[in-house]
User: Which sequence fits this backbone?
């Protein structure tokens, strides 16, 4: 597999359009519109010229919130052509979140869609009235701003300059602005392509918010490999599966929730293959129970490569198709190219093989710091390694296994308990569709273990005694068995990759 390289994202698009001009790049899954690499280059350049005439140039701070679709991809490429500092935020964000981003970024421009389902222009107007330095609002309607490419200044050539700000999902704290370069994002995209062994013949899919950092990674993967992708502005399993079949999609995914929804759809008609052309489901953003790997393999009939990454470091570890079932099910992959990874004990020393500690990383794929400089002091150690806040261990085969979050370790009577270990086991219960295990304040124990469970459709209620018996039969030490069980219709999740919001559950059940 040969992947194209270039110093900047725009130059990568130029090289791809020169190499395979008429090859398909993007497909709008609902509108059935196709775009070649040459068309993408032409449209993005004319859009850049239109932005330039409106005052956007190199270094301009631009926040855009557009749903997954051709306009979003073209906007990202057009701003990359100009060398603007772009800040993509998902279109599901509410007014409060957008206000915080605009205020923190001091954005000069705000790009919003003209979407009938939600009045984005009206929201933008209200926000401008609240801000001391309101941005110029550009509504991206049916007629996008366009100009003549000949009016543009030369494109940027430095791939090391900060040109992207992505905000963390804020599942445990206030979102933080992570600063990226073209280079750090393109490294993530090329590593993703290597992980899935993509070729120009593959058809992928972007069924998650394109404004998520995975959007820029996926764009890099398309340009580097010459493959194409189907765009979906929302993910509904039955509809998505039909579109995947229509366009013979070979690579799909997003997060654990996407796998589970496709599994549920396959189970509705178990005798008929749901995705006959699918080669690999791939994603990240949330923990994957090992049992889920085997369910996807056996029922959908394709591979599952679940990766480890975060907004600050788009792809830290990944599995490969050549890995064994055991490695893909039970590990989170190996450190990727341009990633140096350490496991650090609580006393600051290096952890040994098979020993859990904090995952720390450094390298060209790591972000350049937060927009708030004060956060960088505690986020990087003295050796320049980024402190991920994730707990993990290195196996003898070099694979990394995530064991939880530093903030997700439950300390019960002085005993450290991994929430993820309990979640992975309880997920194998036939009644359980999803589970979150949290620690709650307890006068006697310090913290007590609470399991919050989302049941499979049609399943009878899971009783507390039944859960305890399940753990006892699994021969789990008693200290790890949850002392509290809560059944919910739906676990709270964020709007990007459906991560379970444990801080919401802790607040809900703390008293």
Assistant:
């Amino acid at each position: 597999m040969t992947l194209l390289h270039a110093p900047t994202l725009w130059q990568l698009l130029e090289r791809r359009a020169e190499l395979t001009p008429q090859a398909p790049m993007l497909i709008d899954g609902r509108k059935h519109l196709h775009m070649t690499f040459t068309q993408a280059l032409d449209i993005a350049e004319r859009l850049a010229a239109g932005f330039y005439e409106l005052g956007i140039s190199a270094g301009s701070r631009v926040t855009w919130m557009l749903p997954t679709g051709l306009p979003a991809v073209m906007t990202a490429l057009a701003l990359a052509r100009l060398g603007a500092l772009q800040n993509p935020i998902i279109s599901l964000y509410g007014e409060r979140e957008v206000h915080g981003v605009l205020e923190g970024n001091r954005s000069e421009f705000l790009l919003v869609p003209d979407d009938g389902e939600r009045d984005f222009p009206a929201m933008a107007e209200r926000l401008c009235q609240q801000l001391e330095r309101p941005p110029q609002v550009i509504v991206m309607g049916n007629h996008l701003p366009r100009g003549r490419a000949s009016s543009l200044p030369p494109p940027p050539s430095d791939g090391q300059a900060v040109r992207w700000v992505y905000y963390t999902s804020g599942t445990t704290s206030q979102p933080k602005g992570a600063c990226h370069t073209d280079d750090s994002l393109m490294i993530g995209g090329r590593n993703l392509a290597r992980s899935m062994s993509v070729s120009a013949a593959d058809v992928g899919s972007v069924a998650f918010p394109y404004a998520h950092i995975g959007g820029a990674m996926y764009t890099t993967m398309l340009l580097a490999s010459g493959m194409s992708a189907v765009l979906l502005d929302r993910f509904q399993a039955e509809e998505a599966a039909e579109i995947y079949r229509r366009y013979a999609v070979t690579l799909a995914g997003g997060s654990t929730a996407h796998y589970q929804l496709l599994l549920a759809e396959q189970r509705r008609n178990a005798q008929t293959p749901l995705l006959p052309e699918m080669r690999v489901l791939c994603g990240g953003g949330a923990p994957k129970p090992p049992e889920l790997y085997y369910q996807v393999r056996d029922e959908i009939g394709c591979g599952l490569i679940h990766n480890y990454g975060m907004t600050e470091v788009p792809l830290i570890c990944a599995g490969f198709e050549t890995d064994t079932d055991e490695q893909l099910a039970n590990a989170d992959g190996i450190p990727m190219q341009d990633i140096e990874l350490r496991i650090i004990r609580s006393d600051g020393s290096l952890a040994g093989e098979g020993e859990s500690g904090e995952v720390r990383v450094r390298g060209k794929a790591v972000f350049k710091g937060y927009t708030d400089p004060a956060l960088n002091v505690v986020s990087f150690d003295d050796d320049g390694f980024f402190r991920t806040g994730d707990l993990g261990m290195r196996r003898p085969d070099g694979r990394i296994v995530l064991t939880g979050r530093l903030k997700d370790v439950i300390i019960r009577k002085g005993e450290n308990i991994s929430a993820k270990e309990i979640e992975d086991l309880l997920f194998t219960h036939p009644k359980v569709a999803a589970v979150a295990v949290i620690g709650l304040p307890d006068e006697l124990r310090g913290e007590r273990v609470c399991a919050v469970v989302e049941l499979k459709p049609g399943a009878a209620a899971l009783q507390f005694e039944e859960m305890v018996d399940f753990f006892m039969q699994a021969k789990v030490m008693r200290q790890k068995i949850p002392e509290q069980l809560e059944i919910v219709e739906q676990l709270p999740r964020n709007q990007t990759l459906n991560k379970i919001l444990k801080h919401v559950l802790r607040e809900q059940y703390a008293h």
In short: The chain has 15 helices and 24 strands. The radius of gyration is 23 Å.
